[in-house]
Fold this protein.
Amino acid sequence: MASSPALAYIIVYVEDVEKSIAFYEKAFGLKTRMATGEKRTAWAEMETGSTTLAFTPKAQRETALSGGVKSHDDSEAAPNVLVSFTYDDVNSAYKHAIDSGAKPCAEPEPKPWGMTAGYVKDIDGILVQIGSRVKKQQ
């Protein structure tokens, strides 16, 4: 390889890009970097630091190339991806996310790996971790 890879995007396939943008702005305090297109060509990027969180519709050309994207059903377990955000005040961020429409999964608690974390599901069933930065072990 010519250079070391850098994680550029986490792309989440959603039912409605506009609704997802509004939800992530309200529930997690993110800002929209850009949004374009409509229906099958929609694309939105959220400001999250060095890696971009992006949303695109489940029913777009690229998903058909790979065999499609499985729709989520509330009776099912969360998809095999987790989006993680860190906050200074985890308990307040967790409560705010739930008050904004996130589905609670697990309240914040100290984890053995040195962080406090709670879990919610977003409006598309994606598991979201609301946590603190990992504290260095002494």
Notes: Residues 74-138 form a domain with the 2,3-Dihydroxybiphenyl 1,2-Dioxygenase; domain 1 fold (CATH 3.10.180.10). The radius of gyration is 16 Å. Residues 9 and 52 are 5 Å apart (CA to CA). Strands lie at 9-14, 31-36, 43-47, 52-57, 82-86, 103-110, 116-121, 127-131.
